[in-house]
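Help needed: design a sequence for this.
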């Protein structure tokens, strides 16, 4: 049902019934590979949606802002030039993948963009690394659809991780996702992690609001955390891919 929900949402979007798709799926999916369940994830819900779109000739950006790296999603599309995978995640951390050097296979070099961040990183760092490192790659790729692995376990109150994001930061991320979509009706947001219920509630509401171009911010954006050196390291890796 979780995986099928992504396909049902895509069908509604394709016929113009909405400008945004939101799938509140459980269990999450981005750790599941094509043939193996892992890390709370049974089927890779986002990968099901992205593969369906790619098989119809679309160019798909998967933006994964869960606090954990989506190793399953990366593995599925690592050598697929139809899909660009961009991940911000805490590192070092579970599942131990998502290093800067993981940039895609020979047929899709540069189409995996990992943006690992240290514990304590705040929203200004996440926004800057997306703007300065990922956005040029996304613009060159020119996606026709955007699918978001929207994990909210990067919230400062989440018990399973150590980033310091707020609901306002997720609104900022959703605003960027909306900007990456080429037109209304080409953005699908799928829930991944998030294990503090109040943080999840506020973050999801802020995300949905921003993705619709509205302004609901139950918490302000955060700033001042570590990670500037991580931005510079990521910039050096992906500048080579763009040259």
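Sure. Designed sequence:
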């Amino acid at each position: 049902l979780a995986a099928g929900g992504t396909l049902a949402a895509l069908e509604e979007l394709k016929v113009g019934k909405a400008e945004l798709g939101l799938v509140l799926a459980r269990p999450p999916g981005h750790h599941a590979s094509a043939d193996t369940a892992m890390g709370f994830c049974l089927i890779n819900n986002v990968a099901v949606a992205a593969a369906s779109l790619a098989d119809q000739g679309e160019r798909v950006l998967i933006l994964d802002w869960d606090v954990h790296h989506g190793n399953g999603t990366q593995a599925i599309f690592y050598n697929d030039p139809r899909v660009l995978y961009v991940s911000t995640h805490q590192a070092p951390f579970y599942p131990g993948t998502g290093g800067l050097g993981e940039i895609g296979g020979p047929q899709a070099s540069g189409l995996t963009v990992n943006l690992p961040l240290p514990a304590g990183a705040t929203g200004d760092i996440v926004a800057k690394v997306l703007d300065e490192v990922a956005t040029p790659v996304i613009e060159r790729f020119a996606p026709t659809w955007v699918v978001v692995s929207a994990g909210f376990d990067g919230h400062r109150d989440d018990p399973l991780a150590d980033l310091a994001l707020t609901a306002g930061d997720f609104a900022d991320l959703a605003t960027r996702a909306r900007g990456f979509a080429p037109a209304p009706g080409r953005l699908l947001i799928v829930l991944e992690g998030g294990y503090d219920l109040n943080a999840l509630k506020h973050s999801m509401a802020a995300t949905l609001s921003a993705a619709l171009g509205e302004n609901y911010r139950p918490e302000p954006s955060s700033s001042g955390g570590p990670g500037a050196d991580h931005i510079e390291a990521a910039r050096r890796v992906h500048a080579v891919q763009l040259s």
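The chain has a mean pLDDT of 96.
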